[in-house]
Amino acid sequence: MRTRIPPQTMARTGDGIPSSSARRRRRLVAPLLSTIFAAVLAAASAAPAHAVYNGSRADSDEYAWAVRVELAYPEGIASCTGSLIAEDTVVTAAHCIRNNGRSPSAIAVTFHYGQKRSEYTIGVATAVPMPHYDPARIKDDIALLFLESAVSEPTIELASTPAPVGAEVTVAGYGCTGDPFNPAAQCDPAPRLVETRLTAVPAEACPDIAGPWQFCTYSPDTSANRGDSGGPVIWSDHGDQKLVGVTNAIELPPATAYLNLSASVPYELDWIRATAGLR
Predict the structure, then answer these.
(1) Mean pLDDT of the chain
(2) Cα-flanking dihedrals φ and ψ of residue 117, to 5°?
(3) Which among 4, 24, 10, 5 has a CA at the least distance from the CA of 255?
(4) How far is 222 from 155, CA to CA, in rounded Å?
(5) Per-residue pLDDT tens for 201-254?
(6) CA 78, CA 223: separation in Å to the nearest integer?
(7) Buried (b) or exposed (e) across 156-174, using 16+ Cβ within 10 A?
C-alpha cells in the first residue's frame, strides 16, 4: 500500500501557483496504479502521473509515435506511456521499470492503442534507466526501451532547449481520466490517447523539484494522471513539435492547481543520444 503523508500548508500567490517560499511537502512518486488489475505499485516518494484529467482525445495521426507501455510485476500489470524516438527505441520514465529496486519480468509496447484496425504490440528486449536515477529525489527519471524489432512508425524529435517559462506545452497519455486529487476516484483508463495543454512555470512553483533535471508545468483545471507516467511533454519550437519532457509526477494537495513534474529531455539529451545511438 502506498502511504499518503498529510500535506503541509503552502504559501500561495494570488494566481494559485505556489510561491518560492512554499514549504516542501513529502512526495508520493510515480509508480502506477495498474489499469488492468488496479494494483498499487508502491513508491518511495511524489504523486504519480492516472490518463490525462480533463483532456481531450488526441488526433491519432499526429501521435503515431506514442505508445502504451505494459509492465508485468508480481502485483499485476502496470501501465505507462512512452514515445518512439528511433525505429527501435522508446523513451519513458525510469520509475516505470524500477519499482522499489525491482524490474518487471516483461515489458511490451502497443502502437495505435485503441484503434483495432492498426493496433499492434511489440516486446521490449532491453530496458535501460538513466544511470543516475534517484527515486527519492525524482532525479533523472527517464529510461529507454529497446524493442525486439524495429518499426516503421514516425518518431518524435528531441528538443535541445527547454520550453521557456510561460510557454504552452502539450501532455499526452493512456492513463486514468479521473481527478488525481480525488483519492476515491475510480481509475477509468482512457480507451484512446488523451492530450491536454499546460503552461511551463518557474521551477520554484513545484516544491518537489530538486534540480535542473526536471521542470514544472501548471493548470488550474487539467493534469497528467496515473498511467501517463513516461508520456510525452511536447513543445512547439518555432513551429516544430519536439519532445521537451517526460511525465514524472504531480504535486499532491493542498494545491488548488495542478502542478506536474516532468523530466527534462534537453538536460538528459547527451545520455539519450549516446545510449540510443542517435547523432
Answers:
(1) 81
(2) -70, -30
(3) 10
(4) 26
(5) 999 999 889 899 999 999 988 889 888 999 999 999 888 899 999 999 988 876
(6) 20
(7) bebbeebbeeebebbbbbb
Q: What are phi and psi of 11, to 5 degrees?
A: -70, 140
Return the C-alpha cell found at 90.
Answer: 522508446
pLDDT in tens, 2-19: 222 121 122 333 344 444
Q: Which of 8, 90, 80 is nearest to 43 (CA)?
A: 80
Residue 153 near residue 111, CB atoms below 8 Å = yes
Higher pLDDT, 26 or 52: 52
Please check the confidence at residue 141 and state whether its pLDDT lies above 60: yes
Number of Cβ atoms within 10 Å of the Cβ of 9:
9
Count the neighbouring beta carbons within 10 Å of the beta carbon of residue 29.
Answer: 26
The CA distance from 64 to 79, in Å, is 18
Domains and CATH numbers, the chain: 49-57+157-266 (2.40.10.10), 66-155+269-276 (2.40.10.10)
Cα angle at 242 between 82 and 217, to 5 degrees? Answer: 75
Least confident segment among 40-44, 76-80, 156-160? 40-44
Q: Tell me, what's the pLDDT at 51?
A: 52
Summarize pLDDT for 82-121 with one digit per residue, the tens: 999 999 999 999 999 998 788 999 999 999 998 888 999 9
Interatomic CA distance for residues 227 and 174, integer angstroms: 6
> d(Cα 165, Cα 204) in Å, to the nearest integer?
11
C-alpha cell at 173: 497519455
Facing residues of 168 across strands?
A: 199
In the block, residue with C-alpha cell 530496458? 127
